[in-house]
UniProtKB/TrEMBL annotation:
PROSITE patterns xrefs: TRIAD, ZF_RING_1, ZF_RING_2
Protein name: RBR-type E3 ubiquitin transferase
GO annotations of cellular component type: nucleus
InterPro entries per UniProt: Ariadne, BRcat_RBR_TRIAD1, E3_UB_ligase_RBR, IBR_dom, Rcat_RBR_TRIAD1, TRIAD_supradom, Znf_RING, Znf_RING/FYVE/PHD
Signal peptide: none
The organism of origin for this protein: Capitella teleta
Keywords: Coiled coil, Metal-binding, Nucleus, Repeat, Transferase, Ubl conjugation pathway, Zinc, Zinc-finger
Record field: catalytic activity: [E2 ubiquitin-conjugating enzyme]-S-ubiquitinyl-L-cysteine + [acceptor protein]-L-lysine = [E2 ubiquitin-conjugating enzyme]-L-cysteine + [acceptor protein]-N(6)-ubiquitinyl-L-lysine
Residues covered by region (Disordered): 1-48
GO molecular function term, any single one: zinc ion binding
Record-annotated RING-type domain positions: 130-339, 134-178, 295-335
Annotated compartments: Nucleus
Length: 488
């Protein structure tokens, strides 16, 4: 083989190796982003023991339309109504066909009144004649262009269309009411579509009605991910985590916002509202740096771990309470427990207000710290991926050999996320034995999480056994806390 051929062969071999490395790294990213978060939908032997397990299906728009149409057809056959009227009834009764049939069998007229298909007091029909004047446009109308709803109110078709155009443009669909004064009679879908001639408006109206039908269905929930077409279906409405495989958004099925166990839906809404009201305080805390408690050099945290080592004097301390890290773990992370003033009830109103602000700042700072740590640990993940790539390229194992580091990074993220949402829970939890138990478990999880975070940021292949042992401990602490306090 000539020297030219040898160089060509070497170049081809190097190209093949680079392509293989790229393929392996693509596998790493695919595993982490597509598989690491799918614990809730995969079947395994530990589902019954997992307090966060939740069975659900991810549906397309076509799947949901088919499901809704099946309910409409079933109701039409059961009580002999038109599809448009069936949709009004189903929307008003949470798509419960059996309940509607039962009410219909008891009193059909009462059901129609309850769902605003007909009014309580029916308006007498106005006989149409050549001299009929529309009360909206005040124009004489021929009988061919006059339309009447079940309530008996009559208007010309042109006024109906203009009215529907205005309502649809502002997003109103299933709640469209009659134009008659103080009339709450709902306008059925077929009536609207018979008057609206614009294809764009007809399409918009049908999209809005579909949206309203999904929102009114207790088993359905739109994925809140940006521009995500997925609709989630579950048999029960629970405060459980859903992870969309399409956009990877994680959210609570019950309320639709970010998953927030162990804090319940009502409490997390109160907490988020309070944080929004105190946004200036939040901005101050978010931007705040701290001084090393030993050499007093200004430090800005650049990692998720609260175990901080000063780059100047090498002093190890806790970012939250600035305590010496050597003795920090012996007190079960007392810095995560707020110590209330036992005599605050006897203090002045000003002192009580100051104490209330102090308490809020204590919990908010820890909430915000974990939120910031989650973002910083995304940088840690990138470093881990770069480290794996370097090891693989240097023939120091394959990406499968380094998989445990990705597993550790994912568990760290999961524990950090859960711990963040323990602080709103603790803030609103009444003082007593249950709060003491919660704070003990919270402190234990915090301690194991920081140990895991410290080891993940410094992990090498020789640390695999120690790291996996720490992962097992941290996950058991997390599951224990969630199991004991979720939904209680």
């Amino acid at each position: 083989m000539s020297s030219e051929e040898m160089r060509s062969q070497a170049s081809d071999d190097e190209s093949d190796y680079d392509n293989n490395s790229d393929d392996e790294m693509e596998d790493v990213y695919d595993y982490y982003y597509n598989n690491a978060n799918n614990d809730d939908t995969e079947c395994d032997d530990n589902q019954e023991e997992d307090p966060e397990f939740f069975s659900y299906d991810l549906l397309s728009v076509e799947d949901v339309e088919r499901l809704l149409n099946e309910n409409v057809e079933a109701l039409c056959k059961a009580i002999g109504v038109t599809p448009s009227r069936a949709k009004v009834m189903l929307h008003a009764h949470d798509w419960n066909v059996a309940s509607i049939v039962e009410q219909h069998n008891q009193d059909p007229n009462a059901l129609l009144v309850k769902t605003h298909i007909i009014p309580k007091r029916r308006t007498a029909d106005v006989p149409c004649s050549r001299n009929f004047v529309c009360s909206v446009c005040m124009q004489r109308c021929h009988t061919d262009v006059i339309s009447t709803l079940n309530c008996g109110h009559q208007f010309c078709s042109e006024c109906w269309e203009m009215y529907f155009q205005v309502q649809i443009k502002v997003g109103i669909s299933t709640t469209l009411e009659c134009m008659g004064k103080d009339c709450e009679t709902l306008v059925p879908e077929d009536f609207v579509l018979s008057k609206v001639t614009s294809p764009a408006l007809r399409d918009k109206y049908q999209k809005y009605t579909f949206r309203d039908h999904v929102k009114s269905h207790p088993e359905l929930r739109f994925c809140p991910g940006p521009n995500c077409p997925v609709i989630v279906r579950a048999d029960t409405v629970e405060q459980k985590r859903v992870i969309c495989k399409h956009c990877r958004t994680s959210f609570c099925f019950r309320c639709g916002i970010d998953y927030h166990a162990p804090t319940d839906c009502d409490i997390i809404k109160k907490w988020l509202t309070k944080c929004a009201d105190d946004s200036e305080t939040a901005n101050y805390i978010s931007a705040h740096t701290k001084d090393c408690p030993k050499c007093h050099v200004c430090i800005e945290k650049n990692g998720g771990c609260n175990h901080v080592q000063c780059t100047k004097c090498k002093h190890d301390f806790c970012w939250m309470c600035l305590g010496d890290w050597k003795t920090h773990g012996s007190e079960y992370y007392e810095c995560s427990r707020y110590k209330e003033n036992p005599n605050i009830a006897n203090e002045s109103a000003h002192a009580q207000a100051r104490e209330a602000l102090k308490k809020y700042l204590f919990y908010f700072e820890r909430w915000e710290n974990h939120a910031k740590s989650l973002k910083l640990e995304e940088e840690t993940l990138k470093k881990i991926l770069q480290r794996i790539e370097e090891k693989v390229m240097n023939n120091s194992g394959t990406w499968i050999d380094w998989q445990y580091l990705l597993n550790a990074a994912e568990l760290l993220k999961k524990c950090r996320y859960t711990l963040q949402y323990t602080y709103p829970y603790a803030y609103y939890l009444e003082k007593g034995p249950r709060k003491e138990l919660f704070e003990n478990q919270q402190a234990q999880l915090e301690a194991e999480l920081e140990n895991l975070s410290w080891k993940v940021e410094r992990a090498e292949i020789t640390d695999r056994g120690d790291l996996e042992n720490q992962m097992d401990i941290a996950e058991k602490r997390r599951l224990t806390l969630v199991r004991d306090f979720l939904h209680t």
